[in-house]
Amino acid sequence: MPRFSIVVPSHGVAGRLSLALDSILAQSFGDFELIPVCDAPDAPAADVVAGYAERDSRVTPVHSPPSAGLAGARNTGLRAAVGSHVLFLDGDDVLVPGALAALDARLGETGDVDVLYCEHERTPWWEGEPSNPAAPLLARTPEGAFSPGEAPRLTGVAFPAWSAVYRRAFLTERDLVFPGDHFTDIGFGGLAALRAERVAALRTVVVRHLVRRQGNRLNLPGAHHTELLDQAELVLTEAAEQGLPAERLGPLFEQLFATVLKTAAHPRRLPAGRRAFFRRASALYRRHRPAGYRAPGGSLGVQHRLLASGSYGAFRVLRAANQRAAGAAALLPRPHGLRTRLRYAARLRLPLDENLVVYCAYWGRGYACNPAAIHAKARELAPHLRAVFLVEPDAVASMPPDVEYAVIGSRTYWEVLARAKYLVNNANFADAVVKRPGSVHLQTQHGTPLKRMGADQSTYPVVAAATGSFARLLARVDRWDYNLTSNRHSTEMWESAFPGSHETLEYGYPRNDVYCTASGEDVARVRKELGVPDGKKALLYAPTHRDYATGFATGLDLAEFCEAIGDEYVVLLRAHYFYDGGASRGGGRIIDVTGHRSSEDVCLAADALITDYSSIMFDYANLDRPIVVYADDWDVYRETRGVYFDLMESPPGRVARTPEELAAVFRDGGWADATATALRAAFRERFCQFDDGRAAERVVRRVLLGEPPESIPPVLPLAERVPAPAATLTRS
What we know:
By secondary structure, the protein is α/β, with parallel strands linked by helices. Helices cover 39% and strands 14% of the residues.
């Protein structure tokens, strides 16, 4: 029998789950079993857990459907547990180093108490000092094991389930399970404290809880807040049945109703049914108020008295200030120009157009990237939808003739933004764009992150200065309903870079579908369009932008490089889109494709890729063609821009640090040898997880057609995909 059984529900936290599991498996104390609870065998979290279970026999996953909620997941894990003591850890929290050793040592000192309460640290999602809310309650508890009556303020309702360790036999003998669904910690914690005979405290932080930027999901508006009263009534009823003495009942009553009043006084948590909530809470208050109970002072005391008397009208008056503040923060569009603002505001009062989709790519650079691929698939699967692309004036000429567009800033631009049901972008819409109730915003992203993005840039001064206001950035993130990812790495990094309440869709990038659907004829056509001579090997050179540099510089003399590697090669130069000035750079064996509309076409034409730190490497890897990394300034880039992983340790192929090394890689064939192939295979396993050629279909069906997740086509395994053929190379 292991010392500890650790139950980790994983619904909705697949992106951070590995952090929680790693924190457990890295503990110095190893006598435990780890029980991750996944939605289903094919759920995103199950894929994460499967790898851990293969590597460590202590990991024994179980499954609980999402409909069972957090309580059902924990109860499923509890039924599977065989350890002498049980811990519960949320899938987006972590155990601090040495936590299990500290718990084991404390249990050795106190004996097998029913409940061992411990401290936890609430870590702000971005900045600010961590807090330890359990410390004040535990500071006044006796030193050894004690009965709950010796610490009456330790009621259990103020402790999350993961801020304590429970003797499994105690839970089984006392029929303790997690009740209900929402606010289940209050019911479970209260009942555990009421039924326990011996408890103890560990005045050490055991769990580090990451406070989400969007806050606790329980605080979102909705009818689920009525379940708070269910949990409070459950605990108070048991206390009454036990005849709990007044010295214990008073603190329990006060802590429960502090939570109830916080909800009742919050104007946004209960969009409907506020009067019914108040009346039920009032009846519960009067029925269970301890004899001789004295309400606290100040404004809270006034709320207690109004609740006791059932004076909902007076209670509403107290709430009026908050309601007025919420009203003042109502939607207020601020596009430039008074006439435009008035026109936009007027359109916002009209009903949403349920069949209107607005697309935008790269801040209006034209018909490109994921939005274009989604638009093309929507024409096939959802022809009833009207689509409008938003473009800058200088991109109008590049628009396909059969695609409707609106110039950014025009009257039509603001009209379609005000009325569209669906808004699809690979960057962000203007700050002035209002997120209307009922509209659906899809963020498709435009690459896999190697460099730090979003809020993660804040500690890198060079890029932070160019990013501008992080508050405004996160306000734009708050408009997203869905965020698209192409691999599990992106899922995790986007959650850190763009914290919000949106749903992550692990569907792949629609723009990469072509890498699995294009034919040899398509490759030949593109090469002819780009001017690649027959029989030549085309090397795509795609360097990224340097935040610490001004202007475009390749960092490589391409003419000398071509001379050094021989006549069999030509170079396709594609600078970062920041430098797309339309002017040609190079000639002869150097073909400038920076201004070509489709980076996907350029990749199809290339027999190999040379890049530094550009995200194009992740997309190109789907073609299973050679990639060479030219990392002449990796140390500077890493320090000034910040990166999520060390590319030098996990490259997609050969790495060169100097022009001479780069030329040698091509002269001696190392760019496509067995070592390069093995590196590429490992890279593809990690970063080509969801790009199987059907990403656009999944997005259209789920987002634009509203089909349920279970009906969406599954991702084809990597080994079963057939990438588009290269023109001059045989794929290994």
